[in-house]
Amino acid sequence: MAATADAVLTGGGTMGSVSQMGNKLLLLAGVAAVIAVMAVFWLWSQQPDYRVLFSNYSDKDGGSIVAALEKMNVPYKFSESGTAILVPAAQVHQARLKLASDGLPKGGNIGFEILENQKFGVSQFVEQVNFQRALEGELERSIQSIGAVEMARIHLAIPKASVFVRDQQKPTASVLLNLRAGRSLDAQQVGAVVHLVASSVPDLPAANVTVVDQNGNLLSDTSKKMGANNLDPTQLKYVDDIQQSIAKRVESIITPIVGAKNVRAEASAEIDFSSLEQAAETYKPNQKPEDVVVRSMQSNESLSSNGNDVAAGVPGALSNQPPANATAPITAPGGVETAAGTATAAVPVDSQKNVTTNYEVDKTVRYVQQAMGGIKRLNVAVVVNNMPVVDKKGKVTYRPLTAAEKQQINDLAMQAMGFNKERGDSLTVVNSSFAGEPAEIVPEIPLWKNAETIEYAKDALRFIVGIAVLFMLYSRALKPMLNKLMTASPKQLNAPDGEDAIVNLRGGQAKLAAPAFDQNLVAAKQMAKENPRMVANVVANWTNGNG
Q: Cα–Cα distance between 245 and 238 in angstroms, integer?
């Protein structure tokens, strides 16, 4: 019987040690699991706010960006739609700068970097194709830098060079623009795109460049410069710019007098887009004698006798002799010369003299060429608010303008607009109280519908839930496990010092306990009363030294 009891005690002690070791391992595993769960909840509650790094990227750029972020150890995630890469808000700008230094994103375009990886032994055709692809990619990148352009595609058709002049062909280009939402390009911007492409390709005329938007609208149609009203869009823009410039000048000169937002001006200009060339040649009479200039003068003088021409003189050689020395004739009464001894009658003679004078003509030749775009007529309307007056208490009131103030504003406006009475310009200045803009009634958004409040509430709720879960795990699981691990383990029954071990024999099983001394004494007495024979055998074995 004693041997049986001893075996029971020895086996119970071994089983108790194994059970305690298993319990310790389970407690340690539970503590580790609880700590891991607490760490996960803490990280979830402290999750950073993610912002958009890049959006609407190509697949190739997306892969390159993700690979670069992984190298930089920057956490990232994708948006719900999958069109944007998100990173923590504190690292957005730093990540963008680092990616930009690596040339990311490239926009899906292949530029001249394709020529850096040329394989050895490639044909001339492949080299030409790669150069054309690189040129197209560089042009696409340049055009995409325009604010209104989101994406651009360019196709170049460069013919093969020929040694024959008659067979040479000019290259052509097609440009497809994907504009941003709500944006458009005016005629000047389209022309800039056309000239940008034409200037980048040798021998490419601007007329051979075609620009189309994402809706299929032809933007570079040079055959239809005039609209339905036979007006060039650039002319309409020119008129609008002139009207806005005049109105702005009038407002800027009156604003210091009446104050900001107290004057409104509008201008209406009639522009003459006709081109005029005129040549005039004007002749004027010489009014002043001192301004007369003689150009040429011709004089003609002639003498003739009044009677019949009768031959006179002695016939023969004497008539051909030179005349003799002159002598004073003695003319007798009746016309008879006595000196020569002959009597001759007096013959009457007529003289005629003509003088022709040519004067310089006063001529004016005038060539006039009037450029298009001149102002034919200008109409300006100005509305001025009542003059603000501040009293001693700081209260602002408004009074109408006086006649002198209104005249002063009228004179300033005439000078600012360039008033010309001869061409029929008009100016109207009206003083009136401005109607106050009605206050916009914005419906008050409930606090629980405000987007900013909702975001704050989400962050606060996540933090509170994390703290609550951590507290519950600590109080309900981690703390009891730690208390069990910190409690001292009971001693085995087969310990050498028999005074510290008490055998509890109930139901035929041996169990280990470590109560206080008084409780142990009471328990031993109770066992002796209930099963004295077993107690006696145990004591006998101890006495015989079989412990």
A: 11
3-state secondary structure (DSSP) of residue 240 = helix
Lookup: tokens for 547: 């412990």
Helical (H) or strand (E) element with 104: none
Distance, CA of 368 to CA of 30 (rounded, Å): 104
What are the C-alpha distances in Å from 362 to residues 285, 294, 359? Answer: 7, 12, 9
In degrees and rounded to multiples of 5, residue 368 shows phi and psi of -120, 130
Paired sense of beta strands 331-332 and 336-337, if any: antiparallel
Question: At 385, phi and psi to the nearest 5?
Answer: -75, 160
> Which DSSP state fits 288?
-
Q: Which residue has the tokens 């022309």?
A: 191
pLDDT for position 416: 93
Residue by residue, DSSP assigns 326-359 as -----EETTTEESSSS-------EEEEEEEEEEE
Angle made by CA atoms 327, 328, 331, in degrees to the nearest 5: 130
- Cβ neighbours of residue 339 closer than 8 Å, sequence gap 6 or more: 327, 328, 329, 330
Looking at residue 115, what is its pLDDT? 67
Which residues is 315 bridged to in the sheet? none
Q: Give the integer Cα–Cα distance in Å for 191 and 219.
A: 9
pTM of the model: 0.43
